[in-house]
Amino acid sequence: MFETIMYETRAGxxxxxxxxxxxLNAFMSVMHxxxxxxxxxxxxDEEVRAIVITGAGRAFCSGQDLGGSDNPDYGEVLRQGYxxxxxxxxxxxxxxxxxxNGVAAGAGMSLALACDFRLASEKASFIExxxxxxxxPDSGNLYFLPRLVGHAKAMELAVLGEKISxxxxxxxxxxxxxxxxxxxVQEVETFAVRLANMPTKAIGLIKRYMNKxxxxxxxxxxEYEALAQKxxxxxxxxxxxxxxxxxxxxxxxxxx
Length: 256
What we know:
Blueprint: E1 5-10, E2 13-18, H1 29-44, E3 50-55, E4 59-61, H2 74-91, E5 96-100, E6 103-105, H3 107-114, E7 117-121, E8 125-127, H4 141-149, H5 151-160, E9 164-165, H6 166-172, E10 177-179, H7 184-196, H8 200-213, H9 218-233, H10 236-246
Parallel strand pairs: 2-3, 3-5, 4-6, 5-7, 6-8, 7-10
Antiparallel strand pairs: 1-2, 8-9
Helix pairs in contact: 1-2, 3-4, 4-5, 8-9
């Protein structure tokens, strides 16, 4: 089905694996198209209630394949390739997990930042590699990074371009959890299935309006919350949650 990625679903989770291990899963135009297609498929599939993005081999993603394109207009590369992918990640109203199994460099780090959660192997690392080739962080990097770590630390990471370990990333708030290499796949699966069994529509509404909050004032956010709560209040999962609470049992959410 795909040339540069792998896509499979199990237990309510869509697994998207960047699959160019010999190139450290570096992006090229075909991969952009396939990632966008996979994200759209996962977004539309009602059986999918969480999404995991990871990399094959020893890297998560090393960013752009600089040897794989002769297009010097990086602006168009972004507009046609990376930007639609980042917009899709943000607009999908399902939780998206970056399972960072190895180095996440350049646009690979940007990809991880655009996800809702980041689980990192103890062998993972993060590097704002753009500066080392005279470029600027892109693919949403300048949007997400300062929001996650603060302006001053974001400037430090972006301008100095120093590699940080998984543990350092955890201390900065970039990573949800650091996991041993041996337990990594199982821990990611457990985390993803946990999310897939939660109230999916409520998670989607949280994601939608938390993203909007950055460009909104308090009164707008209060109204967003009212709109979201009205919608959530009519879901089957809300009804199930209340019923389970009254019956003193664990709720069984269906994502509806």
